[in-house]
Design goal:
about 375 residues; mainly alpha; about 70% helix; about 0% strand; globular; disordered C terminus
């Protein structure tokens, strides 16, 4: 039952995220009911569970000591709350069909939405184009990896179609952020498969995106004139804000190195800093860089344990030779360079859900 519920969670992320949340809650409830299986799954990954418990505890302590609102810890507890998903396993046959169904849902939603509304940037089911671009980019890289690792031509075609169906809505978001992760994942697949075909085809597509006239190339061209030292010298508001948040984060990274300044303090304190320096930027409650954001809000120990959690996934992926885990993790880690994913429920939930389920892939492959 929980496999079917998780499948619908995955698919409805590209149709209606409120419905997908209902399926996620159902999946978690069904996973907890199977307590013996849950206990075994948690035991087999107890090092990961310990790291997550410590990270979550540090966040809670920081919130309390800095007199921040308890609601601020909501998305940061996702790592812990989603651990029952470690019980879920899929056969490759079923997982393939789920990925294909999700990709079709993403493309049909794109066609339907674009036929009714005139969007400069496509948002999909998310509250922001960047969020939707990241989850589409993640699924496109999972599809690409599985396409090259497929054992037969039929599966390669299925994953190839899924790749196209996920790339189309991602491209329409005109988002630059996922490109870093995409390049890293393509490089990983090239190394694993020693595929010159993938290298040259990726290079051609990248050059076409950069040098042809389209919404994404327009946004990429703006990066040429980035000034990391003079905030006001950046003409485009999005780039100017990110450079400003970077400056603010670096200046405040050592303010309280052990417990941070607290999540509720960040936005009002940033507003004072912006006003004092007369910067033309809008204060936010996150810094658009997860690592700097966690460091400033919760301190260095929180950042260290977050990185240790990621290192666990890297080590586990290599130990069982399942590099799909690396694909998902690299997409998450790279996306966190330009976006605070913990500030967005849909993205951090989607990434972590896929990571937890991918850990069970060793069971899938043995079936």
């Amino acid at each position: 039952m929980q496999q079917a519920s998780f499948a619908f969670f995955l698919i409805f992320n590209f149709i209606n995220r409120d419905i997908s949340n209902i399926f996620l809650l159902t999946t978690l409830a069904l996973s907890i009911i199977n307590f013996d299986i849950l206990k075994d799954s948690l035991k087999s990954h107890r090092k990961l569970i310990y790291l997550i418990l410590i990270f979550t505890s540090i966040v809670i302590v920081s919130v309390i000591l800095n007199n921040s609102s308890i609601s601020e810890i909501d998305n940061y507890t996702r790592l812990l709350l989603l651990t029952p998903l470690l019980t879920i396993t899929f056969s490759d046959k079923h997982y393939k069909l789920i990925i294909l169904a999700a990709s079709v849902a993403a493309s049909v939603s794109l066609i339907y939405t674009m036929s009714l509304y005139d969007h400069e940037r496509y948002w999909g089911t998310s509250s922001h184009p960047i969020t939707y671009a990241n989850i589409c980019a993640l699924m496109s890289m999972v599809s690409l990896y599985r396409m090259f690792m497929a054992s037969n031509k039929y599966d390669s075609i299925i994953y190839g179609l899924s790749l196209i169906f996920f790339l189309a809505p991602m491209f329409m978001t005109a988002t630059r952020g996922p490109l870093v992760g995409i390049l890293i994942c393509i490089a990983l697949i090239i190394v694993l498969k020693k595929s010159y075909k993938l290298f040259f085809s990726s290079l051609i597509i990248l050059l076409l995106v950069i040098f042809t006239s389209n919404s994404l190339s327009t946004r990429l061209n703006r990066m040429v004139d980035i000034n990391l030292f003079d905030i006001q010298a950046n003409g485009h508001v999005s780039i100017r804000e990110r450079v400003a948040y970077l400056h603010y984060g670096i200046l405040n990274s050592t303010e309280n190195i052990l417990i941070g300044i607290g999540p509720s303090t960040l936005e009002p304190d940033m507003k004072k800093w912006i006003t004092k320096n007369n910067y033309a930027v809008t204060p936010r409650d996150h810094l658009h860089n997860e690592y700097l954001d966690v460091l400033v809000k919760f301190g260095l120990p929180a950042l260290i344990f977050l990185l240790l959690i990621y290192f666990y996934f890297i080590k586990y992926s290599i130990s069982i030779r399942n590099y799909e885990i690396l694909i998902i993790l690299f997409m998450l880690m790279s996306s966190q360079l330009t976006q605070s994913q913990f500030a967005h429920h849909q993205s951090i939930t989607f990434f972590m859900a896929l990571l937890y389920v991918s850990i069970s892939a060793v069971k899938r492959n043995s079936q």
